């Protein structure tokens, strides 16, 4: 694969290769001196049209830990504000000898469009409500690390499914890896094509949590809600907020994930977010490891890994 645009259609062996490669990368993050020469001489540009803390910073650090030259471009402080198009922006970055472009964009399909016009490899860091493949890969890495496998697990994705690229990438990836995926949220926040995604949809949280091995809680995307949409934040918190009481329906060793940023007290209670059975900070660390693996597989110079 030249690019990583989404998890839909990615084969099990490709996902396993990324997760297997991320494991030794995590050891590097734990070292006192976090520097290996694997990507020396390679250049990585993070091109972000939308806000980010975790994804942008972890890609930058992932590149730096492997000695790549990393550069960040926020669209809001670039010539995009003068009207430069996505394709012209991409070609400009390409012409500087860039090896890998990491792009986040509000429009679904923007990374796919860019990939058609540049020589650099493209990684989708989130496109509209479409896909966020590296988030789903780090989620799967975290689940596999805690549970030993993904095969046969029941994973409930809870919340604003409609606006969620994280949900879509998790659905494709988890299904490929043999997990049983449920989604749950108010009917107004379930996408109309849910039946085509191969998951079971629930509007009652207690049913969706029954016997779950993993609950992946999504952020209520307040910035993407249409005004007046049901439910209100207060109604949502009361009906779908994940708390200790509701978690009793899950398996006793349930694992709770959240991609961040969290609306504490809305989709997740404080004492759930901060509990030992939640892995929210671990997900952030794993995000660096998984992004190191992706950059390495796309451009690293060591032998033994298919590029
Ligand atoms: N989970 C995630 O994508 O976070 P950021 O928006 O901070 O990158």
UniProtKB/TrEMBL annotation:
Keywords: Pyrimidine biosynthesis, Transferase. Residues 151-298 form the Aspartate/ornithine carbamoyltransferase Asp/Orn-binding domain. It is an enzyme of class 2 (transferase). Carbamoyl phosphate binds at residues 54-55, 104, 132, 135, 260-261. It comes from the Bacteria. L-aspartate binds at residues 82, 165, 219. One of its GO terms (biological process) is amino acid metabolic process. Its EC number is 2.1.3.2. Residues 2-145 form the Aspartate/ornithine carbamoyltransferase carbamoyl-P binding domain. It catalyses: carbamoyl phosphate + L-aspartate = N-carbamoyl-L-aspartate + phosphate + H(+). InterPro entries: Asp/Orn_carbamoyltranf_P-bd, Asp/Orn_carbamoylTrfase, Asp/Orn_carbamoylTrfase_sf, Asp_carbamoyltransf, Asp_carbamoyltransf_Asp/Orn-bd. GO terms for molecular function: amino acid binding; aspartate carbamoyltransferase activity. Pathway: Pyrimidine metabolism; UMP biosynthesis via de novo pathway; (S)-dihydroorotate from bicarbonate: step 2/3. Pfam families: OTCace, OTCace_N. One of its GO terms (cellular component) is cytosol. Belongs to the aspartate/ornithine carbamoyltransferase superfamily. ATCase family. Catalyzes the condensation of carbamoyl phosphate and aspartate to form carbamoyl aspartate and inorganic phosphate, the committed step in the de novo pyrimidine nucleotide biosynthesis pathway. Heterododecamer (2C3:3R2) of six catalytic PyrB chains organized as two trimers (C3), and six regulatory PyrI chains organized as three dimers (R2). This is Aspartate carbamoyltransferase. It comes from Heliobacterium mobile. The gene is pyrB.
